[in-house]
Amino acid sequence: MLATHSVSEEEALVAELELLGIRYLSRQTLYRAVKVRPPAQLIADLVRQPSARVREALISLFLTRPEYAGAVLAALARLSENQGLTLRLFYSAAVLLQLEHRDALSAATGGGLRPLPDLFSAELELLGGDAPIHARIAALGQTHRERTGITANWAGTYESVACKLLRRWEMERRWSQSK
Questions:
Q1: Which of 83, 15, 100 is nearest to 43 (CA)?
Q2: What are phi and psi of 175, to 5 degrees?
Q3: pLDDT by residue (tens digit) across 79-112?
Q4: Which stretches within the chain are classed as H helix?
Q5: What is the DSSP letter of 25?
Q6: What is the rounded CA–CA span in Å between residue 99 and residue 8?
Q7: 122 to 92, 119, 127: CA distances (angstroms)
Q8: Of the N and C termini of the chain, which has fewer Cβ atoms inside 10 Å?
Q9: Measured between alpha carbons, how far is 43 from 96 in angstroms, rounded to an integer?
């Protein structure tokens, strides 16, 4: 939570994510969070962030803390329709990325990886589980473009978030071994 009024919401969120093991986001201050806001509030506050890099950290949040899936519906109740769509899309990306990077995530988290439940693929009319994972991620990216009107490379964005998270965890593992 915010320790002083001078810390921006973005800085506070990034500091809270650090407490949850998501440490690849750079910060502008030395502010350190001492606790993390409740899951539904954290999810909703991340979605509302104007900064894309912080909003996209939702994917890392679900990959790091799959138990936060239980707070997704409560977070949706706090969001506008457009914000809710963003949450559904990023959550769905995390579901697919967890499948794609299962071994690396399992190794990085000590092996007890809890599967993310698929909450939105039917609603978003995504490809079924029999399609290759890369095709499913590409289709989600296309759905993201169509539903938001933002013509970014969403599949690449999703993959980039997962790679940043996994790369940071690998660097931290190496640092701890070299001590």
A1: 83
A2: -60, -45
A3: 999 999 999 999 999 999 999 999 999 888 777 7
A4: 9-19, 39-48, 52-55, 57-64, 72-76, 81-100, 102-108, 121-124, 133-148, 154-178
A5: S
A6: 34
A7: 11, 8, 9
A8: C
A9: 18
Q: Which residue has the tokens 């973005």?
A: 10
The identity of residue 4, as a single letter, is: T
For residues 46 and 54, the answer to whether their CB atoms sit within 8 Å is yes
Instruction: Please tell me the distance from the alpha carbon of residue 103 to that of residue 76, in angstroms, as a whole number.
Output: 30
- How long a stretch of residues is the chain? 179
Residues 60 and 20: beta-carbon distance below 8 Å: no
What is the model's pTM? 0.93
Cβ atoms of 161 and 167 within 8 Å: the answer is no
